[in-house]
Amino acid sequence: MSRKHLIQLVMLVLAGWTLGQVLRRAVPVGRDLGRNATVAAVLADRSYPMRSDNPATLKLVVFTDYQCPACKLAHDAMERAVAADGRVRLIYRDWPIFGPMSERAARITLAADHQGIYPELHARLMRERRPLTEAIIREDVALSGGDWAKIVETMKTRAGEIDRMLSATRTTAFALGIAGTPAYLAGPVIALGANDEAGFRRLFAEGRAAAKKPHDAKP
Predict the structure, then answer these.
(1) In this structure, are residues 71 and 64 in contact, taking their beta carbons and an 8 Å threshold?
(2) Dihedral sign, CA of 6, 12, 13, 18?
(3) Which residues contact 27 (CB under 8 A, 6 or more apart)?
């Protein structure tokens, strides 16, 4: 291949890559669900763990499982986008769909919320690369500043409450058209699957824009 042809090939590849990036940015990250009862209820519900470092202008409801590879892959990108934005309130909805250990982890973290350590424990478990066991979760609880004995007691005394939270999350996920984790509800916009940091920033913008649009009320 001549130098001229090689340069032309490189230029074609770069042009194709650039076009792909432009087209990717042109496609919405999420889908606007409009204003309906389910979306309104999820965004208004304050009974689930949440985090907001500053006054928020957008709520981001995060549906995750601690054994979900895609959830773990997207976690740090989401955190960077949230930190850069500075006006996003995270609302955590544990949806354990990867088996008994996922459910055990979800119950432990929900109990840990009563000690005020949910966000830190959630982050540790999302960054945990070892296969989850109760011993590893207990280790992460300690690193998050939690009291394991109190968590075990809370899981017993608040078992019914935790059951209801997990059941409600499952029902809500299906009502929003979510088939699996991860999923993110930014205002009225739902995004399914993992995203990179740029994707999350676009999702935040889409969520804010959709919240300002007039929507016909839906049942």
Answers:
(1) yes
(2) positive
(3) none
pLDDT in tens, 167-196: 999 999 999 999 999 999 999 999 999 999
Residue pLDDT, tens place only, 2-54:
555 445 444 544 434 333 333 345 589 999 999 889 999 999 999 999 998 77
Taking alpha carbons only, the member of 13, 25, 42 closest to residue 169 is 42
| Cα separation values, 167 from 47, 107, 135, 162, 219, Å | 13, 12, 26, 8, 21
Q: What is the DSSP string of 66-123?
A: TT-HHHHHHHHHHHHHHHHH--EEEEEEE---S-HHHHHHHHHHHHHGGGT-HHHHHH
Annotated domain spans of the chain: 30-212
**Angstrom distance (rounded) from CA 64 to CA 126:** 9
Say if residues 88 and 60 touch (Cβ distance below 8 Å): yes
Q: What is the DSSP string of 2-24?
A: -HHHHHHHHHHHHHHHHHHHHHH
Find how far residue 110's CA is from the centre of its chain: 16
Report DSSP letters for 130-179, one per residue: SPP-HHHHHHHHHHTT--HHHHHHHHHHTHHHHHHHHHHHHHHHHHTT--
Name the CATH code of domain 30-212 (choices 3.40.30.10, 2.40.50.100, 1.10.540.10, 3.90.226.10): 3.40.30.10
